[in-house]
């Protein structure tokens, strides 16, 4: 499933970031997502995004279960 398809299944999506860690061109953003489905069901999910920024533009977005996994993926130890 493509990212746009995933987000479009929800009526509302609010992302609450919990800080930022920059490592080279990568920015790690732990977050909590508050989502409401089209049928009214509410979901709260925690994850960590890694944004790769090149030439002032986001060129890649990856999602991980937690911050430790995201940091390991980009070669940074906690």
Task: Summarize the model shown.
The chain is of the alpha+beta class.
Description:
The chain has 78 residues and is α+β, with helices and mostly antiparallel strands. Helices cover 17% and strands 56% of the residues. Strands 1, 2, 3, 4 and 5 form a five-stranded antiparallel sheet that branches. The termini are far apart. The mean pLDDT is 92.
Structural class: alpha+beta
Report the end-to-end length measured between terminal Cα atoms.
31 Å
Mean model confidence by pLDDT: 92
Helix content: 10-25%
As an assembly, this protein is: single chain
What is the 3D form?
globular
For the largest beta-sheet, the strand count, sense and barrel status come to: 5 strands, antiparallel
Order of helices and strands: HEEEEEH
Hey, roughly how much beta strand do the residues contain? over 45%
**Count of helices?**
2
Q: Calculate Rg over CA atoms.
A: 14 Å
Poorly predicted regions? none
Give the number of DSSP strands: 5
């Amino acid at each position: 499933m493509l990212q746009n398809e995933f987000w479009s299944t929800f009526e509302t999506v609010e992302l609450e970031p919990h800080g930022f860690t920059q490592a080279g061109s990568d920015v790690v953003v732990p977050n909590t997502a508050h989502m409401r489905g089209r049928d009214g069901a509410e979901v709260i999910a925690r994850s960590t995004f890694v944004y790769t920024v090149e030439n002032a533009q986001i060129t890649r977005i990856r999602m991980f279960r937690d911050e430790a996994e995201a940091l390991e993926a980009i070669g940074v130890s906690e």
